[in-house]
């Protein structure tokens, strides 16, 4: 990365610019003053004089992108949908500037014979006709079914769960971890299998979409055989670009099925905005004011298209995505954002020999405020398992078993002082059962988190479960080319597989079990799924052992 980080005053001014984001075309400007002059205000939902659309005028199915739920709380469910009769058109095929009343229903059963709650919400054009409904006063640890209605149209039925009560002595929780789903690299077959799993919650650990151009003539699939010239064959830059890219991804039937089957807890990595950006520093030599406007567009589209609650709604180029969820006394989940607040990657990014620049104690992956929040949360934790869903590999990964090794500057290896502060904080808080969930690298790892990665005999502090990609990297292989070097160089690496799929983790009072689930191919649809390996870690005695 060669872009120069702005001074704080200029960064604050640029954030003010991006909070007034609303242009439909990307701004090409040379300074903050020009950005201020060209920015157009995008009003909050409900502030514009949008006309109410008679739902009888909607002549095509508006629920083409399915339904979703997310961030389960003990007494509340968050329900999501978007109205898009023609999802590959700007605005989804609804009249420009029209708001639509959407009715929602919640029931105890899939056929809605035992209805529980119903209401309505407004799908505002300012939010691209997405709906986020927070349903309060529900029972803890319960399964519910939900659906939406507009005029004569009814959405698919979704199934969600609330979290157990804060003091509940729950003894079992099963989760899945997924990440990295490049549409052009393959079919979302893993999601079809995920929909059939018996899960309490799914954690998406980043790269929900990719900003790169999707070429209808290339990749493992071409828009599911649709020909849409000029819509997706360019990199995402504007708000409309990001919205349309979400429409492409969320129209996939396997992803629709997974969202309908389970509540999702999402966090982003880089590709939801731009590859390997760091804080307010873009990947390439782009003026910082342009990047912050782009980041604002990406963050807004992310919130619109994910089952997120109101506290996560962005303010211009800033969005508070790190948050905490508790599932009774069994598990506390501290969901991190390792992209928005990080220092720029050392030594120009990539795999580099570590040195004074990467080892500078001032460098941070989380930012100071998020780091304090995490450590304070551990000090107050009372759960059996402390689970940290996040983006990039935390454990050390030397690329070769010699002294001339390199490390990834984009992962925690590029921020070792930041990692040490977090691990020291876990020890100081008395966290005994630490588990980190990770995505990003398009392979599956099972790792022991060591007090000193350079000493294989040092204390094991926890376990790291790295889920492979859903599609990114195409089919992959069981033993990638660097398998021998990586396993020899890192004795704390207990498992390594390069195929596509996901991971499940079953938490219990006495132990946790991790199952690495893989599909044989993603470049052709319908591949079966198998369990490549299973590991157990005992409560109070961290470290992975084969199950």
Shape: globular
Oligomer: single chain
Q: How many helical stretches?
A: 9
Provide the spatial order of strands within the biggest beta sheet.
12-11-10-22-23-24-25
Compute the average pLDDT. 91
Quote the beta fraction: 25-35%
End-to-end gap: 43 Å
The largest pleated sheet is described as: 7 strands, mixed
Strand tally? 25
Explain what you see.
This protein has 547 residues and is of the alpha+beta class. The protein has nine helices and 25 strands. The strands form five sheets. The chain has a seven-stranded mixed beta sheet with strand order 12-11-10-22-23-24-25, with helices on one face. A seven-stranded mixed beta sheet has the order 13-14-16-18-20-19-21. The longest helix has 18 residues. The N terminus is likely disordered.
Write the layout of secondary structure elements.
Elements lengths: L7 H11 L13 H7 L12 E2 L14 E7 L2 E7 L15 E10 L7 E9 L6 E6 L7 E8 L2 E2 L3 E4 L10 E7 L10 H7 L5 E4 L34 H12 L2 H9 L2 E3 L21 H18 L17 E5 L3 E5 L15 E2 L15 H12 L5 E5 L17 E2 L7 H13 L5 E5 L5 E7 L9 E7 L16 H7 L3 E5 L2 E9 L2 E9 L9 E10 L2 E6 L1
Helix pairs in contact: 1-6, 3-5, 4-6, 7-8
